[in-house]
Design a protein that fits this description.
The complex is a heterodimer of chains A (about 100) and B (about 270).
Chain A (H helix, E strand, L loop, with lengths): L1 H8 L4 H21 L3 H15 L5 H24 L7 E5 L8
Helix pairs in contact in A: 1-2, 3-4
Chain B lengths: L25 E9 L5 E6 L4 E8 L2 E8 L8 H15 L5 E2 L4 E3 L2 H10 L1 H11 L2 E10 L1 H11 L1 H12 L5 H31 L5 E4 L7 E10 L3 H14 L4 E9 L11 E3 L2
Helix pairs in contact in B: 4-5, 5-6
Classes of the chains: A mainly alpha (about 100), B alpha+beta (about 270).
Chain lengths: ~100, ~270
């Protein structure tokens, strides 16, 4: 709505607002990719499948697995940096006194 | 969770010289079973043949091995170690599998897990009593299925024929139409195959679940919960249905697994530093 208002009434500022908006959007997409390990896990399952089907050998599997593991570690690091929950690592039962969730 | 907690992400394979020796109080948890006396499962644990043993609370036991407090990458080696332990335990017990990589800081923390989740674990163990999981992935040979379609579907055959003899008024348009026809027919065939396979296995399974397919050749990625007494019958049915589709489909049949796809206990865990 705000963007439409700008485009309609302030044509000169329109493009600037547009660029800002899409930069913000790009950044959000990039951040989402950085902190989402689902695609890496999907890739890992596909890799596993290739090995099972005999399409790749053990050496190729190991090589590609190493790349995926690095991607997983990167995702974990970004999540920690952004204060998000991460999978794996030492855990304990959540204490009741910590309140909900 | 209160404050954002961080965990060191070193890989277990790289011990850091000069630092304090890694704490070995940590417990890697593989699964939960019903057992009220200690049992040793041998030196088969994750991280290079750690001893696998039990931690108890009342009639529940967690199957654990000692570990430094690290994050285990889901490498093939680690995942196979995790699986191997669960397979070993499963031969004698009904298990609730833990997800890969679950590490507790101490034995007390494991006991606390069993205590605080006692009721849910007990209920699920009752439900899963003597049940096992099988995985079934079905892949197709797309080219062969298309060739089959061309033989059986009159409209596809006619169009293909017209294109190859170049008598269609617009070859481009005919090709588009053919492509669309083939796609639609493929979708139809796929859901027919999948429904047929489910239909065949339903009488010998307690439950089934379809997961997301992996890669572009897979048309079915399912898990089936089966009574141990029905294992043979399930096996026979899978063989029967795979013979039926011998030329078109490839069946990848695995198990028995712990009931990963049929146990859903949300544990309230938090990071421990």
């Amino acid at each position: 709505m705000g963007l439409l208002t700008k485009l309609l009434f302030f044509p000169l500022t329109g493009p600037v607002a547009g660029i800002r908006w899409s930069l913000g959007k790009v950044q959000r997409v990039v951040e989402e990719e950085l902190v989402d390990d689902a695609p890496v896990k999907q890739d890992l399952m596909e890799l596993q499948m290739l090995l099972e089907l005999g399409d790749i050998d053990d050496a190729e599997y190991a090589r590609r697995e190493a790349v995926l593991m690095q991607r997983l570690r990167d995702v974990r690091e970004w999540r920690e940096r952004l204060g998000m929950a991460t999978a794996g690592g030492p855990v304990r039962v959540a204490r009741e006194s910590h309140g909900k969730e | 969770m209160t404050e954002p907690q961080t965990v060191r992400t070193e890989t277990p394979a790289i011990p850091q010289p000069g630092l304090a020796p890694p704490a070995v109080d940590g417990k890697y948890v593989y699964c939960i079973i019903r057992l009220d006396k200690p049992k040793d499962f041998g030196s088969v644990g994750i991280g290079g043949g750690q001893r696998v043993y039990t931690v108890h609370y009342r009639d529940l036991a967690a199957i654990v091995s000692d570990t430094p407090l690290v994050i285990y990458d889901p490498t093939r080696e680690h995942v196979l170690a995790h699986e191997f332990v669960n397979e070993t335990v499963m031969r004698e017990f009904t298990v609730i599998p833990m997800s890969f990589g679950t590490v507790f800081r101490s034995e007390d923390d494991v006991t606390e897990l069993l205590r605080s989740t006692y009721q849910a674990f007990s209920d699920v163990l009752d439900k899963m009593q003597d049940k096992i999981e099988f995985g079934l992935k079905v892949l197709w040979e797309r080219e062969k299925v298309i060739a089959n379609l061309e033989r059986e579907n009159d409209e596809i055959r006619r169009l293909k024929d017209e294109i190859s003899r170049n008598i269609a008024s617009s070859t481009y348009f005919a090709r588009m139409q053919l492509g669309r026809l083939v796609e639609a027919a493929l979708e139809g065939v796929q859901s027919r195959y999948v429904a047929d396979i489910h239909e065949a296995l339903k009488p010998v399974a307690v439950a089934s679940r379809s997961n997301k397919v992996i890669g572009d050749r897979m048309i079915l990625n399912a898990a089936f919960l089966v009574e141990r007494t029905q294992e043979r019958a399930f096996d026979d049915k899978v063989k029967e249905v795979s013979r039926r589709y011998e030329d078109l489909l490839m069946f990848k049949y695995t198990g028995p697994w712990p009931p990963y796809n049929f146990v859903n206990i949300k544990l309230k865990l938090e990071k421990a530093n």
